[in-house]
Design goal:
Structural class: alpha+beta
Mean pLDDT: 85
Low-confidence stretches: 1-52
Number of helices: 7
Helix content: 25-40%
Largest sheet: 8 strands, mixed
Strand content: 15-25%
Shape: globular
Distance between the termini: 12 Å
Length: 254
Amino acid sequence: PMRFKKNGLLIAASTTILLSFAGIRAAEKNKSEILTTPANPAKTWSDSMATKEASAEEITIRLYSFLKLDSLGLDEPAFQQALKGWQKLKMQGLLDRESIMTIADFSQPSTRKRLYVIDMEQQKVLYNTYVAHGRNSGKEQAIHYSNRPSSYQSSPGFYRTEGTYYGSNGYSLRLKGLEKGINDNANRRAIVMHGADYVNESLIRNQGYLGRSQGCPAIPVKLTRPIINTIKDGSCLFIYTPVTQYAQRSSLVK
């Protein structure tokens, strides 16, 4: 496990995680306070670790609890995998907007708000809304996954958000699949984030599940522009699946 010593000589996790943990420790002392970035975050972290070492697992659990992700329905293993891969991508220099992490939790049915846009620096969930999976991945639940063109299935794993464009689905966000053999055909498959009128609660009420895409993580039309503008240009998007085959193949979550 990753460890931290009080002198700050051994730091194996990212600065953002450290600052997040420091903020959580400060907020836990006074639940009534709104979390703010410390005036001297490095000193706050050093002071907070003066009497105790913290493992990566402890940091993850505390951050998951502080963000109230359990009450929002996010599966804890989804957050753990997302955090692990996000940190590796940062260490590899593959992210430009390091503070933003987006998770699509496909362990949940489409009837739930399973998309989470998180500001890791400010320790805030910015958006929690619906997201569609591919029509051949399943009806209510995403069960089947594929990296093949024309499969109309979702591909799990880590993506880097790219630039925006206007296409047949309006304002859209290009996605680069970062995992070979898992989602690296995203560009060939035209897998992008876009708004869709079939991503709405009335469909859930009428048919019992959300509308489905051709493999794209489609989101509500009214939130398309604000979400895309928040996560575009080099942030991390993680599509989580509880299918064990993904975790066994992915070097980013091992």
